[in-house]
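Supplementary Text 2. Reproducibility record for the structural model of the 330-residue chain.

All settings were left at their defaults, and a single model was retained for analysis rather than an ensemble. We include the record here because the model underlies the residue-level annotations in Supplementary Table 4.
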Amino acid sequence: MGGDFGPAVVVEGAVAAMQEFGVPIVLVGDKAAIEREVARLGADGLEIRHASQVVGMAESPSQALRRKRDSSLRVAAQLVRDHEATAFVSAGNTGAAMAIAMFVIGVLPGVDRPAIAAVLPNRRRYTVLLDVGANVDPKPYHLLQFAVMGHVYARDILGYDNPRVGLLSVGEEEGKGNELTKDAYEQLKGSSLNFVGNVEGREIYNGRCDVVVTDGFTGNVALKISESLAETLEAMIKEELTRDTRSRFGAALALPAFERFKRRVDYTEMGGAPLLGIDGAAIICHGASPVKAIKNAVRVAAEWAQTGVNEHIKAALEAEVERGAREGRE
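Retained model, structure tokens:
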């Protein structure tokens, strides 16, 4: 029911996921509104759960938790909590979705704070950047947990054998950064992860790292700048290619290359941002997500569940705790 386009786009994306990937779907929200969209698409085989309330995009997470106990977000989260559904996908209010997922579904053992991970294209494949907004003031050991969760996600979902993990800072040298990054550096250096040290912002896109860890404030700023830059570059390139007849002719010849480039940087290929650390799969989609993004968010959520990402996160976190205790005794 949330997002910029309401149920029309979400239902169509869910139907596409069901038809293309064979994923069973439960649509949660105003039953009459959903049924209209299902009828419009001529679809069948989808389960509908009615929810009498909707969380607005501007509502605070605390209000959504306290005052809207029959919202579509909460009902969907309850389905995951009660094992009637495996994954939670939303294009609605991000803060409310995160808070409801955390307090209704719960967090994995060993996780203090869930983290929102953005999967961004780089020169080779993808980089997992986390946290991008859930925790603006984390502790150093939270960043270690983020790194472990990002490592598992990059390995299980993106297929990296031994993901390279970097800590976002203002310089590559050890000792650079603020107190948070300095303390987190020591914890990451002592972990079993493939830690490559401090990295600068450029490493997010040049392919040197597979996972980049930072606090939610810095990560969100980096993500929003990246989104704006991508939109600006696309607009500027389009403007230059249509400036005169010669440019338009050249653009026509280079069209296949431009189409390939657009696919490489298209965020809809990954669908949304995984909320790592939740005791279930949770994908947070952009409010302006088109049909393709919703479809792929459902696909990624299904892959998450099928590959056992959460069990692997729990095992990896337990191993790090045991390692830390062992080294502490030594």
